[in-house]
Design goal:
This protein is α+β, with helices and mostly antiparallel strands and 238 residues long. The protein has 8 helices and 15 strands. It has 2 domains: 92 residues, Pseudouridine synthase (2-Layer Sandwich); 132 residues, Pseudouridine synthase, CATH 3.30.2350.10. Helix content is 24%, strand content 34%. Strands 1, 2, 3, 4, 7, 10, 11, 12, 13, 14 and 15 form an 11-stranded mixed β-sheet that branches.
């Protein structure tokens, strides 16, 4: 039987907007001098919310934890499309937003639930021929991407103040929420992009359980250990 130490497990971090998921991993590795650190599901740099960081022997569970379903909340801005489908990209088109009610938005969003064949955006970390798409996009190169099967359990708007709609979406792993925003804008004829995104749950874990990155990096190693979810608790979870 392997002996696990206090830092073999998972750490729930509420990622701030700005750093990449890899930046968060690197900061934790550097601060606590832990050789093996990984994460369970990339968040785009502008996105915030739950990022599961795995430490030590728990890094071998990252693939398992990554397959969990996710819930997101955020804002979609109607009337503008961008090359990245989110607020980080360059604006490609700007159109007037037609009068629309919250109920009408929710009627339109229903068609995005269930199984969907989704094409990854060019500005994404998906690799083709070993090269991330975003590196090709930076050079102005667009390549054909294979659609991937994803499942959206629910997609509802909670509020709408033109041109911003506040939504909540539950989906399987690998779903590009910014692609959903883009496609909804195409369906409505005015265009749209993802203005902000926050991951609120991943599997059984909730962002309310997470610590801010600043708080984690200010801790001593002994204190960090008290916030790590032990390896054995992760390996028996569904």
């Amino acid at each position: 039987m392997h002996k696990f130490n206090a830092l073999d497990g998972a750490l729930l971090i509420d990622k701030p907007s700005g750093p990449t998921s890899h930046d968060v991993v690197a900061a934790v590795r550097r601060r606590f001098r832990i050789e093996k650190v990984g994460h369970c599901g990339t968040l785009d740099p502008q996105a915030t919310g739950l990022l599961i960081i795995v430490l030590g022997r728990a890094t071998k569970l990252s693939e398992k934890l990554m397959t969990s379903d996710k819930v997101y909340e955020g804002l979609i801005k109607f009337g503008e499309t961008t090359d990245s489908y989110d607020a980080d990209g360059e604006i490609l088109s700007s159109l007037p937003v037609m009068p629309i009610t919250l109920n009408e938005l929710n009627e339109a969003s229903v068609s995005f639930t269930g199984d969907q064949m989704q094409v990854p955006p060019m500005v994404s970390a998906v690799k083709i021929g070993g090269v991330p798409l975003y590196k090709l996009a930076r050079k102005g190169i667009e390549v054909e991407r294979k659609p991937r099967l994803v499942h959206v359990y629910s997609f509802r708007f909670l509020d709408y103040n033109e041109p911003l709609g506040m939504f909540r979406l539950a989906c399987t792993k690998g779903t590009y929420v910014r692609s959903v925003a883009h496609e909804l804008g195409q369906k409505l004829g005015c265009g749209a992009h993802l203005a902000s995104l926050r991951r609120v749950t991943s599997g059984k874990f909730d962002v309310s359980q997470a610590l801010s990155l600043d708080k984690v990096l200010a801790m001593q190693e002994s204190e960090l250990g008290t916030h790590v979810i032990p390896f054995l608790n992760l390996s028996v979870s569904g």
